């Protein structure tokens, strides 16, 4: 039996296909009976008539909130900490009564603006008139769908990412949404994990820059008001390190990795003013994120002084029973609220048990007041903002097209791109991803306007009408179909054409939450489809549409060009064509390393050297004749059957022009501990097309008290140059940015030798070096004691 207070909505099949499955609440509800739950939800006595109402309290924010808290009963306070998902397309009588009784603080947007409006009317009729927070996963668009976040990260363009978040927020706000559960900033170095699609890649610096931009775009904060939607950064913390790439799995890591790799994007989002923080499903070093006192109270609320709302993930409070961390839901509620979780998303734990826990002294009412204060602060900030912008609009669709263009990464080009439209009489469009209006949107496209999703096939037919014939064959029913029945028709179509555009990849069902993959190769019959196409004497352009890096070494070798398009969103067709025909020049750069094989995973550029690093020119033993290998190739950190290098490195991407870096200069050979290092280098467009380059600055700390990465991204610039044009790039590196957090959580800045590289990817070769001098520099606070026990 599904609990009535937090149940599933039966979504249309289109939405169901895109919605990751979630555990039923009955799996983790513990021994409570329906009668005991119902009793816990009802106030023990009729509250007195309110002396004030939410919309009538005058004064500053803190004064308004304190007045409301003083007026609230314990039942009403606990109600503010409960978030539910409505059933069906209208409010049930029970949910309506609970909202009117002030026993619910937030509900999910369930697909219809009318339901959100109805819920808010009931909240307005409650004793104190406190509005609900209407929440939704607006991850990369609302009605108009932008590229998946991993694709957005490939733009390396915070301004463009900020604008996409702004437009998404305005579309959602127009239909009553107040709060989005985005951005997701989990650093991920394992593409087996399905939720890599939602991340901003493998690097903490790039993820931090984009996270801050997304928060700013979503919230549109000015004058203390949120004119967009409240943002909620997730999943705190290190969810992207799930063991084996399997979703919800355990996470085990050092303090060093936690503070230097996985926490910085969260800090950047909160520093940008993010109002929400969501905990992780995973256990982190043995403690579920939903009860991680050290992370929530110690780091976020303590060291970082976060004063917003900490919310659990979906039913993750009661799921701690399954973890074996607590015996029942009552203990789960106690553990979560005392660890700092302010709002319980879609589980019965807080509604059923907080009142009893307060009565028994296991949870203080001061802690309840602290949580309520955080929720009310968000609600006050959401009042009086802009009204939103109904979708779709020309502005949002143009933004989706522009963002998709800049997200796509040209991985290979043997001179076939750009295509000359005028010279083409027939174009073959082949592959199972060429005409998938839903799948090209990617995961978490819950509210997409699929009617306005333009596929590559649809756009190419329209674009080339009257100019060239477009012949089409899918080759396979789906990306994961194993039957080869469609290959002969695909070959027949391709033989007619002057050029073959081959659309392969993975559909949305293979990407996103609970969509981990044990293999990273093209699924189904697609490898054979590529092989058969490549055997034709035709120019073959392979366009990959996927939610993760795929291991496409053999396929990339076989074709003439590879454009990696990710899941590009509503405007996939126009954006892809803009690049294929040279109207625009590809400028995307990889935000994550592409492995040659799943066996190399995890593979990332900021690796640590071992005592026996493999030489850069290492050749695998298998097939090479082991007896002929030089001694220096023996007993090294390598595989015997694959090179240790990636297929494509972090930061990589080709263009229709060429760029050259030279003339690197440093302002200091020896940098004082309070100084700033200036780095200058010249960048020249040596080709014949105007184009954008992503100039990247990398650093290495050669010797430290802990082993440091072989290089780390420190900064990046997007620069557009005309043919033959040069520009002097200028970067600044403050001495305190050369520090790191050690395993004792101390931020240390250690003197010594540093390397600097400037170039177009993480293999940049333009090099200089300097020395950081010993002495006193600025200190940085990293961690502090947990928040006062009085607020727990």
Offer a concise description of the structure.
By secondary structure, the chain is α/β, with parallel strands linked by helices.
What does this 3D model show about the protein?
- This protein starts with 12 loop residues before the first helix and ends in a 20-residue tail after the last strand.
- It has 792 residues and is of the alpha/beta class.
- It is built from 22 helices and 28 strands.
- It is globular, with a radius of gyration of 27 Å.
- Among the domains are: 397-580, Glycoside hydrolase family 3 C-terminal domain (Rossmann fold, 3-Layer(aba) Sandwich), CATH 3.40.50.1700; 606-645, no CATH class; 659-772, Immunoglobulins (Immunoglobulin-like, Sandwich), CATH 2.60.40.
- Helix 8 packs parallel to helix 9, helix 14 packs across helix 15 (349-359) and helix 18 crosses helix 22.
- The strands form eight sheets. Strands 13-18-17-16-14-15 form a six-stranded mixed β-sheet, sandwiched between helices. A five-stranded parallel β-sheet has the order 4-3-2-1-12. It has a five-stranded mixed β-sheet with strand order 20-28-27-22-23, with no helix packed on it.
- Residues 1-41 and 781-792 have low confidence and may be disordered.
- This is beta-glucosidase.
- Residues 693-762 form the Fibronectin type III-like domain.
- It catalyses: Hydrolysis of terminal, non-reducing beta-D-glucosyl residues with release of beta-D-glucose.
- Residues 1-26 form the signal peptide.
- Keywords: Glycosidase, Hydrolase, Signal.
